[in-house]
Each structure stands twice: as structure tokens, then as C-alpha cells.
Amino acid sequence: MEKKEFHKKIAATITSIKELNTLNFEEKTFPIREYKMVGVMNKILEVYLAIKVDSDLQSDPIFQDYLDESANLFYGTITADIYLYTRSIERIAGSILEPGEWEKLFWRRSAFEALKELYQGTVFEQYLVDQVEIDEDTEERMEFLSQREGPVSEDDIPKGIPSSHWWWWGEPPEESDDD
User: Fold this and answer.
1) Domain assignment present for 179
2) Does 175 fall in a domain?
3) What's the total number of domains in the chain?
4) Is residue 65 a part of any domain in this protein?
5) DSSP assigned state of 47
6) Distance between CA 126 and CA 132 in Å, rounded?
7) pTM
8) Could you list the residue range(s) of the whole structural domain that residue 140 is in?
9) pLDDT in tens, 42-75
10) Using an 8 Å Cβ cutoff, are 10 and 66 in contact?
11) pLDDT of residue 179
């Protein structure tokens, strides 16, 4: 990905976060907030995948500024939205999925992992470590789905997804005695 395109993705992500911040946090806005939060998370995953494909982008000063600015925006106002986003992953994993729908679940799960990885070392990291996690039942359901459905076709796995996002390939990694 060219830097110009990468910078556009970064700008679009910041704009989406700011738009989400303009909504009141009232019950009537929850569906809109959830919809916009999915859009924010999709953009975050796109930025993450870009740096996974081209690691030189990670040292780009505009990317570093993006991390600082977006971490502050998240930390200040959107922490509840991230919590609700993780609950939506759990809700989807617990529902009856039609063939092919599990890929949407896997995309959301990868977006959450991207968020945690991208924001290590920022003001937002501690919130992600302490407050937000995918529950064990959801992990087990995702393992069941990925084994039942089989691995996603290599052509359908987004370029740059790391092997730690095991759900795309069908099985979690073996736990070692060191864990």
C-alpha cells in the first residue's frame, strides 16, 4: 500500500472516531453507535493489516501521530463503545449462524485483537488490558465454529492477518507448559 493511501485510511479512521464521539450516549442512539463503532473497528483493522503487510508503515510519523490522537480519543470517550463491541462479538458467536456468516464474526474478532495490539504502549493500553476481554465461552464457540466449518479459504483470509488470529485457520494454538 502506498503511503498516500495509508494516510487516507488513517484520516478516515480519525474522522470516524470523532463522528462517533459526537453522538450522545443515550439508549436511543445505541443502534447508531454500534453501527458506527463497527465502522471504526473495520477501519482500525484495515490500518493494522496495512502495517502487517508493510512493516515500514509502522515507523511513519503520521501513523505515530494517529496512534497518539486516536488513543486519546478512545480513552476519553469511547471505552463503553469498545465494551459493547466485545459484547456484540459474544452475541454473534452465541447465535445460530448461516454458512459464511462466521467470517463476519472472525473479522470482528480480528479487529478487536488489532485494537489491542495497535494500542500497546499508549494511554489506552491499560483500559484494554484491565477492562475488555472476550469471554471464554465465546472463544470456545469460535473454536467450535471454525472446526465445524473448516478453515476459511486462503483467498478469503485478509492479507496480513497474523497466525495468532487462529480462528481463520480452524484451531487455536496448542498451549505450552510455559503459559
Assistant:
1) no
2) no
3) 1
4) yes
5) H
6) 10
7) 0.87
8) 3-168
9) 999 999 999 999 999 999 999 999 999 998 888 7
10) yes
11) 47
